């Protein structure tokens, strides 16, 4: 018999150990979404903001500069990296149903964005103007992201995720009506800002 | 005086095993946890953890799941229905003992 086998504890100590273990496990396995939302908020706010600055004074409209598009691409890669680090660290070693849910959810992103970029390519090759492409290019990604969040909220029973997803879809739709220049400012402030607000609210809720 | 452990499941009523069962119970039903992550969460030595897992497995409270990851076989464990029920029973008995202790105090 090992030492641990001989250890005794009374009922009160056992009850305390149950509470402590349950809390620590839940804490260790729970994915913290605040840093994830923050990374995406910064990416949209700064990336789309830079694009807006590059098209703001254009007469006639030529579209966002290559530098601002590259900046947005870099920021999106950084946000993907933050997301993956947070998720992999928390879910390491967990197998079964919730791991499959996570993998399918992860796959919804490349599926959605590949389809979106293919459609943008089709619009371009059938003669869509730079203005139309500008509107679709700015509003499309926020719509795809919003819809993924709305559905993902059903997996994790998370109303805050549903609210953020609905907000992003609304911003995408409303922004599209403001035209190829202002849409970038609307999506940057309301989309990126929405992510940052959600991150701040969730971080505050965490600390009682 | 009766022992405070009266009526408590002896398989679960050991600190290390109680922590193992509660940790696995925190996962959604049908999920399992790899041996290495369980070890990291509990801070037990591998040998100690194996000893307790074997005892829980003998009682039918946990099951081993073998999975293949990165080409090597990895062991994961999960709580069985019996294990989940045993923890619920244990917690209920514990609560009863604590209520009794509280009720007796004023006399």
Give the percentage of residues in beta strands of chain A.
under 5%
Secondary-structure element series of chain B: HEHHEEH
How far do the termini of chain A sit from each other? Answer: 43 Å
Whole-number tally of structural domains of chain A:
1
**How is the largest sheet of chain B built, in terms of strand order?**
1-3-2
Number of strands of chain B: 3
* Biggest sheet descriptor of chain A: none
Question: Assembly state here?
Answer: heterodimer
CATH superfamily of chain B, please? Answer: Winged helix-like DNA-binding domain superfamily/Winged helix DNA-binding domain
* Shape estimate of chain A: elongated
Whole-angstrom Rg of chain B: 16 Å
CATH architecture of chain B: Orthogonal Bundle
Topology:
The complex is a heterodimer of chains A (208) and B (107).
Chain A: H1 3-6, H2 11-29, H3 33-55, H4 66-91, E1 94-95, H5 97-125, H6 130-156, H7 159-176, H8 179-206
Chain B: H1 15-25, E1 32-34, H2 35-42, H3 46-58, E2 62-69, E3 72-79, H4 81-104
Antiparallel strand pairs in B: 1-3, 2-3
Walkthrough of the structure:
By secondary structure, chain A is mostly helical. Chain A is built from 8 helices and 1 strand, in the order H-H-H-H-E-H-H-H-H. In chain A, helix 3 (33-55) packs antiparallel against helix 8 (179-206), helix 5 (97-125) packs antiparallel against helix 6 (130-156) and helix 6 (130-156) runs antiparallel to helix 7. The two termini of chain A are 43 Å apart. The longest helix of chain B has 24 residues, at 81-104. Chain B is elongated. Chain B has a 3-stranded antiparallel β-sheet. Chain B has helices at 15-25, 35-42, 46-58, 81-104, and strands at residues 32-34, 62-69, 72-79. With 107 residues, chain B is an alpha+beta fold. The model of chain B has no long low-confidence stretch (mean pLDDT 87).
